[in-house]
């Protein structure tokens, strides 16, 4: 697969139980297949650190405003979603295969944003409610698709910042 941001060949990288595709020696972005994301369960403390320390080529300039095409589907343009608690983070999602692309800058931002957070549970709840408007169990009753999307994005944050989540402690809808 080719990097959707800079065209470099993506490199598979196994982290814990899942394999992601990283733009090593390129822009440093990361691709998550939907199946890998849904499989991901146990937080791995090292995952986020490994991903932000991917070797980058500093000569590669990425236009972060440009829309990216899905590296898996080829000609499908990915949709950009913006999430926020304290600052805005952009995530590209393929409408066809459900995969997720994160630019290297977004990875850094997510890590910096959440790693030192003290009121984790409160902010995790805020994340779901401010970005999706409802608690996860209410969403599941209304729309399975919406709940699945919320879960998928929440899993990315969890994957990047495992210390932000405490397994089983989210009484508002564990994911
Ligand atoms: Zn790249
Ligand atoms: Zn796709």
- Provide the succession of SSEs: EEEHHEEEHHHH
Shape label? globular
Q: What small molecules are bound in this structure?
A: zinc ion
**What's the number of helices?**
6
Structure description:
- With 175 residues, the protein is an alpha+beta fold.
- It has six helices and six strands.
- It has a six-stranded antiparallel sheet with strand order 1-2-3-6-5-4.
- Strand 5 and strand 6 form a beta hairpin.
- The two termini are 29 Å apart.
- The relative contact order is 0.16.
- The C terminus is likely disordered.
- The site of one zinc ion (ZN) has 8 residues, from loops.
Features:
globular, disordered C terminus, alpha+beta, binds zinc ion, 175 residues, single chain
Q: What is the structure about, briefly put?
A:
This protein is of the alpha+beta class and 175 residues long.
Secondary-structure map with pairings?
Layout: E1 11-15, E2 18-22, E3 30-32, H1 34-39, H2 47-52, E4 79-84, E5 88-93, E6 100-102, H3 104-114, H4 120-132, H5 136-142, H6 144-160
Antiparallel strand pairs: 1-2, 2-3, 3-6, 4-5, 5-6
The protein binds zinc ion (2 copies).
One zinc ion binds next to loops.
């Amino acid at each position: 697969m080719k990097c959707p941001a800079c065209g470099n060949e993506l490199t598979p990288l196994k982290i814990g139980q899942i394999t992601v595709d990283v733009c090593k020696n390129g822009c440093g972005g990361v691709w998550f297949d939907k199946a890998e994301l849904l499989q991901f369960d146990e937080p791995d403390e090292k995952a986020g650190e490994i991903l932000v320390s991917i070797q980058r080529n500093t000569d590669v300039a990425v236009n972060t405003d440009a829309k990216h095409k899905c590296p898996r589907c080829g000609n499908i343009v990915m949709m950009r979603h913006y999430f926020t608690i304290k600052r805005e983070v952009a995530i590209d999602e393929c409408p066809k295969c459900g995969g997720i692309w994160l630019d290297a800058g977004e990875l850094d931002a997510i890590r910096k944003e959440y790693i030192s957070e003290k009121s984790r549970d409160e902010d995790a709840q805020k994340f779901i409610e401010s970005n999706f408007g409802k608690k996860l169990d209410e969403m599941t009753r209304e729309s399975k698709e919406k709940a699945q999307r919320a879960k998928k994005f929440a899993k990315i944050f969890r994957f990047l910042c495992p210390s932000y989540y405490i397994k089983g402690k989210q009484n508002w809808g564990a994911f």
